[in-house]
Structure prediction request, 166 residues.
Amino acid sequence: MQYQAEVIIELKAGMLDPEGTTVKRALEHLGYETDSVRTAKKFTIVLQAADIHSARENVEEMCEKLIANPIIHNYSISLREIE
Amino acid sequence: MQYQAEVIIELKAGMLDPEGTTVKRALEHLGYETDSVRTAKKFTIVLQAADIHSARENVEEMCEKLIANPIIHNYSISLREIE
Prediction:
């Protein structure tokens, strides 16, 4: 079966987000006031797996080993079958 | 009212995604086969607005003017009231 995983990699609470701060400031210069801007990364991964549980297990391992840095990031995975 | 907007900035279909290609290749080296990896950016923006319609209008303008590049990006906005 083919699955699509949407993985969101966010900075943990309390981690500085200089890119978000820069965007917030740039928006202010354009006249848009915001209370906060936080950035995150999204990965859309299409993969083959026997079932949705093994797909999730695979994607979790990918996050732990490569995509996320567990010291500074939280990640969330949402999965759906596409075939 | 305070609103939280989740903005996803994705490359348009057909645009090359070198970061996604690199992650796909790195996953292969670690033993994880995938069919595709695409990257995107997520911004979480907290802002004040009179109602949800003006919040959406504001965030759309932020995307058009600063956050997204309409030549290469699609964006989607999901909004919810948080106060």
